[in-house]
Amino acid sequence: MNNSNSQNQRIAKMTFSSVYPMYLAKVEKKGRTKEELHQVLTWLTGFNNKKLNELMKENVTFETFFRQASINPNAHLITGIICGYRVEEIKDSLTQQVRYLDKLVDELAKGRKMEKILRSA
């Protein structure tokens, strides 16, 4: 994916706390829970609920959010199309990590089993 630098910068400057309510609404609308969303977030980032709440309260950007994260070593197993791009082909690492999260939230909302969402090698 050859995303433009301006699009990558726009994604980097978005705050996690501004997007989180949309993630939550999306999964709850489809019958999933906040706890399941947090399980997915924890799997991808290594953050526990306390840390997620701190980061939202601090209004951190995605750039800061993912800089502090310990990305799951199996995140590379997340594949497929999100926002018209194949996540495994995204060149900018931050944009790819944000799209990993988007993809996981989509899978959760679509009713995919948690064992499939939380990939293991």
TrEMBL record:
Q: Mention any Pfam family matching this sequence.
A: DUF2200
Q: What is this protein called?
A: DUF2200 domain-containing protein
